[in-house]
Amino acid sequence: MTSAPVQAVLDRLPGVKPAGPNKWTALCPVHEADGNGHRPSLSIGQGDDGRALVNCLAGCTTDNVVKALGLTMTDLFPPKAPAAYKPAPQTAFTARRFDLPCLAAKALAKSIRGELAGWWPYFRADDGEALTVLRFNLPDGDKTYRPIRPSGAGWVIGDPPGPLPLYRLATLKGVARVWVVEGEKCADAAASIGLTATTSAHGSKSPGKTDWQPLAGRDVVLLPDIDRPGEGYARDVATILTALTPPARVRIVRLPGLPEGGDIDDYLAADGPVDAHTSEEIKAAIEAQADAAPPWTPPADSEAEHGVFVRLSDVAPQPVRWEWPGRIALGKLTLIAGNAGLGKTCIALNLAARVSRGDGWPDCPASTSKPGGVVLLSAEDDLADTIRPRLDAAGADVSRILALTTIKRFDPERGREVFESFNLAAHLPILESGIAQVENCRLVVVDPISAFMGRADSHNNAEVRGLLAPLADLAARHRVAVVAISHLNKGTGDALARVMGSVAFVAAARAVYAVTKDPDDPSRRLFLPVKNNLGNDTTGLAYRLVPVGRDVVHVVWEPAPVTVPADDALAPVDQRRGPEPENREEAQSWLADFLAGGPRPAEDCLSEAARVGITHATLRRAKAAAGIVAEKLGYGGGWIWRLPGHKMPPQTVLAEGAQEGAHLAPVSNNLSIFEET
Predict the structure, then answer these.
(1) How many CB atoms are located within 10 Å of the residue 34 CB?
(2) What is the pLDDT of residues 207-216, one digit of tens each?
(3) Poorest-pLDDT segment among 436-445, 523-532, 573-582
(4) What pairs with residue 44 in β-bridges?
(5) What does the buried/exposed string (b/e) look like for 390-399 if buried means 16 or more CB atoms within 10 Å of the residue's CB?
(6) Of the candidates 121, 77, 74, which has an alpha carbon nearest to the alpha carbon of residue 100?
(7) Cα(95)–Cα(98) distance, rounded to whole angstroms?
(8) Which residue in 223, 513, 586, 660 is a FRET match for 349, CA 20 to 30 A apart?
(9) What are the pLDDT digits (tens) for 174-201?
(10) Residues 602, 672: contact at Cβ < 8 Å?
(11) 115 and 240 inside one domain
């Protein structure tokens, strides 16, 4: 049986003749390419391990012969094992690309705090290098990709101008059938079993940036990844290929036995669906599937995608409906981000407990409601020893709370049930079924959201938007509040930039809260608004984690608002804005005198303090240090500040947002005063 490397050489040579067992002769593509009556001088043989032995008896180097065939020296060698070959990750640049690319990659790795894990060069038709795609593994376990391109004597970050070439372009010349996959790693995996494979730069995100003309009029088979982006990529590429002149003949083959998110690299892995077969058998099986697949044709007009437009005169205005008035809206996505150990999960479970009982909220205890249902997605905590005890400590009605633990499906290839992790790209319908299983479901908790993103890159804006848009649509359709938990990165700058991953997370969320330690009291935690498009974006709350028993803690909220900006609270100690201690003590003394006669409107406190030269930030800290109590007068009223020993007439105080649907909007950029709209 001819090995795949030998067959790849023979397929590219004219006039091949047998010369004995596992031996052939042919015209040398270097010096006998004109075909003018030469006596074949190229000897091809098959080694004991399946490698291709190529030797020009006239003296042409093997490297030049292989290059003339559109191959590389690596293509002459078979997989390391009889089972399908899975390419090992690259860890060093080849000699050809030793100097400047290596320096560029090292500089990039340092700047993004990542480790170089692979690279894939793209060459133009003239064999000049167009760009190289670098992959970096990040400290948090995620990965990211960066393109670099030659520029003068060095390399710069970014794509070259104009259309990008196809990957492994030189290998596509004169081949009857080309296989298109998603991603360079998959193209290398397909090539390892003898398939002539290619892909476009940047995977599923932008096939339109690539020049697909080399595939015009060719027989092309698409092998999509088994997920929504993979299907979208196959559809987009098929549309491009069938519009070429002349059009390509396109077929789509979905490899059997792959789990959600699987690709040809997984298919060929040692523990994949086909681990008992040789590379040649796998190749033959895939080609047979391609032969049997029907040609792909663009959808008819009735099946084509159409935009859905809505005339705004047909849209009935509706007020925002709140779960936590002014802070967490129903039908919207809310993000809570913070470092480990600060109680993000405890907050989420405290919210779940309040929803399950229909209780009020820390800053508006009168806003009770009918008990509601909750669906939990938790990837980091055990249900029995962590989640349930914390819910019990918070007083939850656990009969109204449903936890989605895993996805079970029947695998016909294995003939048994298999289990896999939930991911937002593939399993939203299952989450939707969970929402339907709990009566009056009003809250979905995703903790942490990064654990449920499947193969999507959490640092890629387009991929994150592609996951969060359907989740936001689900929240709107079912009128549930979706609260996602995330982490903070170790960077500096404003609070929005500190949320882990792509900026698309904070862009998609209608409200974002940061959880951090109180700079003045490390045992106290702050829950601070980073962004709130719909409600209160100027005040947060404080809480403490109080032990209940030996191994359980729960959240105890303080009802008074906190006015420390998230940017200040998250800044490094040496960068935090704030008054010197003596200034704060002076402001604290002034504030005590100002309020000695009784409660005063917060607006008066702030304006009078500014008149005597006390800044807003200094007054805020003085207020916290003095224990000044802030309360809100009824709807349309403002905040009132009072000394701890002074009391307000109870009928004049109204919890913020006590009426469902109340929309609280700031009437001043600097003052903590709200009115009902």
Answers:
(1) 8
(2) 888 999 999 9
(3) 573-582
(4) 24, 54
(5) bbbbbebbee
(6) 121
(7) 5
(8) 660
(9) 898 999 999 999 999 999 889 999 999 9
(10) yes
(11) yes
What are 605's two structure tokens? 């406190």
Residue 9 structure tokens: 């050489």
What is the amino acid identity at position 416? R
Q: How many domains does the chain have?
A: 4
* Most confident region among 60-69, 218-227, 422-431, 632-641 by mean pLDDT: 218-227
Count other C-beta atoms under 10 Å from residue 318's C-beta. Answer: 8
| Within a domain: 309 | no
Range of the domain at 12: 4-76
CA-nearest of 202, 113, 112 to 160 is: 202
Residue 196: what pLDDT? 94
Backbone angles phi, psi at 254, to 5 degrees: -100, 115
List, in order, residues 6 or more apart from 88 with CB less than 8 Å away: none
CA-to-CA dists, residue 604 to 608, 635, 655, angstroms: 6, 19, 21
* Residues 601, 670 within the same domain: yes
Token pair of 139 as six digits: 């400290």
**In this structure, are 232 and 326 located in the same domain?**
no
The distance from CA 70 to its chain's CA centroid, rounded to whole angstroms, is 37
> What's the mean pLDDT in 148-175?
84
The residue from 554, 575, 596 where one domain ends is 575
213 with 331, same domain: the answer is no
Structure-token pair, residue 215: 């595939």
Structure tokens at 673: 């005063």
| Same structural domain, 153 and 232 | yes
Task: Based on the fold, state whether residues 487 and 414 are members of the same structural domain.
Answer: yes
In a domain, 151, yes or no: yes
Which strands form 249-252's sheet, in the order they lie side by side? 197-198, 177-180, 219-222, 249-252
User: What does the block give as tokens for 419?
Assistant: 């289990």
Q: For tokens 């016909």, name the residue.
A: 412
Angstrom distance (rounded) from CA 530 to CA 255:
45
* Residue in 319, 340, 419 with CA at minimum distance from that of residue 677: 319
Amino acid letter, residue 53: L
Q: What is the CATH number of the domain that holds 345?
A: 3.40.50.300
* Whether residue 599 sits in one domain with residue 539: no
AA letter at 126: D
pTM over 0.70: no
Does 307 fall in a domain? no
Shared domain for 515 and 599, answered yes or no, is: no
Q: Name residue 346's amino acid.
A: C
d(CA 440, CA 481): 12
